[in-house]
Structures are given as C-alpha cells and as structure tokens.
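Work package 3, deliverable 3.1, input record:
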Amino acid sequence: MQEAIIKRAKELLADGSVNRVIGWKKGEFVYDITPAVFETAEEIDADFVYNELTSANVSKYLVKETKKDGKVLVFLKPCDTYSFNQLTKEHRINRENVYVIGIPGGPKLDVEKIKAKGITGILNITNDNGTLKIETLYGEETMPFADAVSTKCENCKSKKHVVFDELIGEDGDITDTNRFEMVEKLENMTSQERFDFWRDQLSKCIRCNACRNICPACTCEKCVFDNPDLGTDNKAAADSFEENMFHIIRAFHVAGRCTDCGECSRVCPQNIPLHLLNRKFIKDINSLYGEYQAGEDTTSRAPLTDYTFDDCEASIVHERGAE
Amino acid sequence: MQRIGVFVCHCGTNIAATVDVKAVAEALGHEAGVVISQDYQYMCSESGQNLVKDAIKEHNLSGVVICSCSPRMHENTFRKAAAAAGLNPYMVEIANIREQCSWIHKDIATATEKAVILGRAAIAKVHLNAPLTAGESPVVKRALVIGGGIAGIQTALDIAEAGFDVDIVEKSPTIGGKMAQIDKTFPTLDCAACILTPKMVEASQNEKIHIHSYSEVSDVKGFVGNFSVTIKKKARFVDELKCTGCGLCTEKCPMKKVPNDFNLGLDNKTAIYIPFAQAVPKVATIDPEYCIMKKTGKCGLCSKVCSAGAIDYNQEDKFVEEKYGAIVVATGFNPIKLDKYDEFAYNQCADVVTSLELERLMNAAGPNGGTLLRPSDKTHPHKIVFVQCVGSRCDDSKGKPYCSKICCMYTAKHAMLIREKYPDTEVYVFYIDVRTPGKNFDEFYRRAVEQYNVHYIKGMVGKVTPKADGKIDVQASDLLSNEQLHIDADMVVLAAAIEPDKTARPLATMLTTQMDTNDFFTEAHPKLRPVESATAGIFLSGACQGPKDIPETVAQASAAAAKAIGLLCKNSITCNPCVAHADELMCNGCSSCEKVCPYGAITYQDKEFRMPNRTIAVRRVASVNPAVCQGCGACTVACPSGAMDLNGFSNKQIMAEVDAICK
C-alpha cells in the first residue's frame, strides 16, 4: 500500500496537479510517526510512510494548508474523511484547494499497548497473519495483533470513505460496532460512581492541551481557553475541580460536530478515555434527535443547530435527570 | 468604577415577610461600587420611583440595581424612571427577589441570604453594563388571523373595522368552525346559524378581509411588526375564483359514500362537496381520497356538468408568502376522542353519541332534518341519559385534568330542547357538579330542572351496556340517595371533554409562543394580559387559550383584535437594543450562528484582514443586521469560539453574575 501511495503522490506532484502532499513521516523510531507536509519527490522518497502505525488523522492540517497558495494532496483513511467533511461543512477547509485520495484505514496499532507488555527497545514491528513480530534490542518478541490495536480502532464506525476524488484500494462499508458499550456502562452507574469515575480519570489531566490541539473539531481562530477577553480563559485553572471541567466544556463545544475519530484519547499522554465524553453526546443526540453522524455529508443540518417539529421538548432533560 | 445605587423593595409583605429587606440593603451597601443602598415599601409606586430618580441625581449614579419582583413585571417601569432622571435605561438591572426568592422560601434566614446573593449578581452585571440606544423598526399594517371559527371571524371583523387589512387562514374548506355545527345557543336558545352566518357573510364581503380557506400556516419568520408567513393553500381541485357554488357537481358526483365530517360521520356526502349550505367561501372541494377521477383517472362527471369550468383535477398545493404586523391565534378546540372509554360503549353502540353529534342530530340541516331519531334504527328515543364530565376533571391518563366549562350549560340546553320538542321523552343527567357561573346561566339550568322536569342525578355512570333488544342499560350511582340505578335508555349522550385543536402545538412551535401541559396557549399574564401571548405581536383569541363558551370567546376575540389594532396603529415600534454582534477577529466562519438564527439576521461575507508580517488574509466572517436581530441569543450559545456576543447580556456579564453567585 505504501508503494502505491508514494507512486501516486509523486505522479501528482510531477504533473503539477498538486503542490504539496500531506501524509505521514518517519520518526527517530519505527513507531514515532508524525503527520507532515511534503513538497518534493525527494522528501517523499526519504520519509513518507504508511503502515499499521500511521494512525494520525491528518484532515485538520488542511485548515491551514488550504488557505495557502496552490493545491494540496491529502491521503485520508475512511475515518479521516468524516473529519474532512465536517471541516468542509464548517467552511474551515477550502475544498477547491484539496485533492483527496481515499486509502484503506486501520486497524492501527498503539505502541503503548506493546510497551505495556514489557516489550522495550523496539526496532521493528511486522504483522505476520495476526501475530506481531517485534524486533527489539534484546531479541524478537511476539504478541497477538489484536492485543495491540489502538483504542480508536477497536470500535471502528466506518470503512467507507464519505468523500474522495480518487481511491487507492477498495472502499468499505459503514461498520456496525458496539461503540456505545462503555457509555452504557457509565450510564448505568449511580451518579456518585460516575462522578468518582470521571474525577479519577480527569484528575490525571496535566492540561497539555494535546486533545484540543489534535481535535479536528477544535479549529477556532482563538480558543475560548486562550482568550483573555472572554473571562473564561483562566476559569479552568482556578482549582482542580474546574480544571477537570476543561474536558467537559470541550465536549460541549464539539457536541454535534465531533465525528468520533478518537484522536483525543489517542494522543492523551495520561490515557484518559476522553472519547467517552464525546460518545455520550453522540449517543444522546442519536436517541433524542434520530441517528446522526457528523461529517457524513457536507449539507445536512446538525441536530443541535437545527430545528424540527419532532425535536424533543426541553423537559426531556428534567425527565432524564429523574431517572 | 460605576457608581451604583441599590434599591430594595418590600413589595408590601410579598418580599418583606420572608426577606429581611433592611439586612439586604445593608449587606449590598458594602459591595464595591455601591454608593447608596436603600429599602422602601413599594419601589414601583410614584414615591418609590422618585426615590430612585432623586438618588440618581443626588449621587450621580451611573448604574442602578432594583431588588424587587420579576423584570417581566417592572423592568420597564424602572428603566423609564432612570431615563427620566437622565440615566441610560439600560444601566438598570433587576434582581428578582420576589418570584425567585421570597415566594419560594419559608425560612427568613435562607431567603435573606439568597436575596443578598441575587443582589450581588445584579451588581456584578451592572459593573459591566454599557449604555444602549434603541432603534426603531416599521410595522406592517396587516394582520393574520389563524383559524376561521367565531373567534377568528370576530377578531378579523374588528381589525377590518379599524381599517386594517386582515387575512384569515382556515384549514377546512369553509369558515364558521364549531359554531356552524351547533344547533341552538345557551342561555337564550337562539339559533347558532342565524347569528353566525351573517358574520361569515360579513367577513367574506368586507374588502379588508381576505379568507384563505382550506389553507394552513406552514412557516413563520420574523418578529413583532414584521412577520413573514408562508401559507399553504391546499389543492381543492376546484378553481376558487371560477366556482359559483351552484352545487350541481355535488348532485351529479357518483361517489356518494364519503363520511360527512361536517355531520361528524353521521351521514354521507359526495366526493366533491360543499360542507354546508351557508359555507363561506361557497366553493366546492374535491376529496382526493374518494374521488373516482383522482383515484382511477376515469369519471370526470363534475368537470362535465360544471358550466363555469372550475374543476381542475391537476391543481397542486400552492404556497403564498405574506407579511404581517400582528398575528392572532384562534385555532379553537375539538371534543376528545372517546376510544379509551369502553365503559360508555361509545364504539360499540351507535346510539351512544357525543354532545356535538347530538347537535347535528337535532339540527334542521343535520342528517335527520332536525327530527331527533336514534342513529341505529331511526326510531324516536323515549329515554335519554346524559353523562357529564366524560374526560373532564379526570385525574387519570385517559382524560383531561381541567373542567371543560361549556358542558354543564350545553347539556342543560340539550335536555331542555328535547323536553320542549318531545315531552314524552324522559331525560336524565348524571353530573359531578353543575357549574353555571355566567350571566343568566343558573336561571337557565334551574329552568331545565324546575320547568322542564329534567332528572338531574348527582353521581357518575359506571357502565353502559347495549342490550339485544336495542335498549341501553345504564348503570349508575345516585350519590345523594346512595342508590345503585339501572336505567333502560334509548340513547346515551356523552359530554366529551374539549381539547385544543391538534394543529395548535406545531403552530405554537412556529410562532415561538408558550403552551401549557394541556396544549392551551399561555397568556402573557393570567390576569393582566389575558389576550396576549408572551411573544410580542402574537395574540390569543377564543378556546385556543382555554375552554370558553361563545359569549366569552367573542369577548376575547374582540379584546385580541383591540390589542392587535393597538399595534397596527403604530408606524414603528421601538427595537430592542440588546442585539448580537460578531467579533470578526475571532469568527471561524462556521455558519453555526446563521443556522440557528430564527430571524435571518446573520449573513456571511469574505473579508480582507491585515495579518502579521504585512500579509492580507481573506476570511469568512459573520455579520449581524441589528435591525432584524431580536436579541434571542441563540447565536451566542451556538458560536463555538465565543465570537458572537449579545449587547446587555454579554458572555462576560453573565460570567460575572455566575461568579458573584458562586463566590
């Protein structure tokens, strides 16, 4: 797959159809791959990589890249296309300046899950029919592929590209995974248990802002948490409880716009399951306003910024609170 | 730093009985920026207002906090007082220590503490207030009346009389509503048609009134003085302008088995029909569910006999858009469905009817030509049982919790009319209470009992059982003599509860007006503003606001008209200066605000911005038209970056209030 992608990227650069390519770049180690912009075939040959470890969603980089001159080529996994559509819908991406090639997605690996098995000094990782062969400084180790699958890929919502100009490989279907299982578990807790769960999780937060910075729904010109004029910027820092509220507020801000790409949890250095907050909103929106998948298209009205006669009455909050 | 004056009202004992007003004034006097803090018995009185005015001048106040009742009540009073003393009216804030404090607390210490907190929040807000100036917006001199029953007709006639154009939108093919189906009216027993139909004709002939019959309101945009309404004119497959109402088509139509809804399904009509002889507009309508031509494409008889060439089988729904300054809701009521009342055998026995069905059975234009006959075998009934409160005053889920108000009187009317016309008929009325508060109402009821010997029995009917011989066994209890009764009745008449028309709720949503849990429209104030809704420019007429008889409906209809005329008389109205505005530097251009704006006040444009390093960037940013914005604030909460803000209710002000409360 990597070869096909590189070949097509170089072709499009060579014939001048695009000026830049957004993809993934090798790092110092085999697993520290980062999103990157490539401008020449040489750069691509040297560093471009696409494998089981390229899990980053690159659509958010287009907010800046499509405002520049020239055309950008972007490779999008199925889940990334949802973010792309959502950003297009919000006029954050200039669609005319992008050429989208859909490529097959995950499941991707989470190297932390490999490290958690005590495997260190990783030099190379290969997938041999469901078994990971991990070459390390201390010899070869193996583990089942499934045990190292990234959390964001465990409940894949779709293998279908909702937007593309061309495809490499086959397009898939929307998958029916049980992605609300954990949310249901949380809902079934008593309010005290749930409070304790989230206090426990959120108190780990070090406010590195990685979740916000990676989130394709967080593309504000100026984030409310960075804006001294709003009077909200220093609120979250007031005490440890308000610090926890940062994530709740962020979940509210992306509600109805979050495509459930899972990047927030993937990048969290403290392994806080932030995606569960967003999934709770998605689940509630689905049950209150009918099934809705943000980013599925660029035209439909989002339930929270739309209004229909069938909308639930405001009293639903009260009724549900009484449960 | 603002110079703030705090004024704490006792509201007689309304506030002072539960809140230690002196302690509140004392505590708030120590807040930063407060230069004077006083209490007074009635702050809204002239001397109370003078206290505020004098303080503004004497202490050179730049902001005022009134701790009193809800701002809905007296915010305007105090804004005017401030303006009279030379202070910008928008520098006044109300801390609601009555509805939100004294009325809901019993403990003086708790209520006093809360009153101080509410006062602090208002002070925190005033610190961030800025003077605002209200603009003006023009008033469209045309009214819309939704519903063409007696309420809608009366409202329209009164508005037209004052010289304003008025449109009636009626969902059925004719105006007239429920009153057109009624035979006689209490307490004078004059014929409903004789007093209604002249009004219908008057409405149709008045050149200021335009009737959209067989039409519905499908969309409402805009605001007081400037509503934009889309009216859906349903296809009636007959050209309204050509049809002369001669009725030849209805005679020739071969499809004669269409349940006649005007007679509540008690007889049949043809697929092309005119609801009744006095219909306005007198225009035929084709029911496409039954029309042979519409269903099979073969027939066309009506088209052949129509000399006016009015039949148009291909007619489609039409949408017209019209601007209005005021809207009057007159959507009326319906009797509830009695499907859930198996104990009264309504669905099992044709001779168990509702009171409205009885009206039709007794009406000269009804299915029996005015002779009261049993629907089952067309024989004359000799024993009739009336059951009151079927579905009214119910505490179960089947019925309505309220009293339907009109049933006691129309049942007395029915009983009296039957005894008058058919003295050989025995009439029983089972009741919980007989409620007759109205002019000449109790006299009317007593006449039924004393003069016409109607048997009024206090008690409820437990079970109605149709028997094989055609009689109906009515099992009931007489609560006064403590006896169980069995009556062999020929007919049973159920006084079904009334409920608002089903179209009312979606309409309320379109109009952004409030409804109560029973779907009756909520008035702006139950005592002092009974015909206005809480939404400016929307008025309430008739039973859509609550159960009403005809005289009350007409009175309210005229009152609603008066309110609408009062609005239409003005050339312009003062706008609310609390409008939204966008901070272009923070705007993402995402269109969330544009999508939620109910007034269409927000547009987007690509604008050039000077960026760092002498670069220029083109960014898509929102802009608000302040003349159209109504300050609802939907955009400010939809905006993810906080770029949208509302004058007078800025994010910062609200945050300051919250902070003051949580401190």
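Chain B touches chain A through 24 residues (CB under 8 Å).
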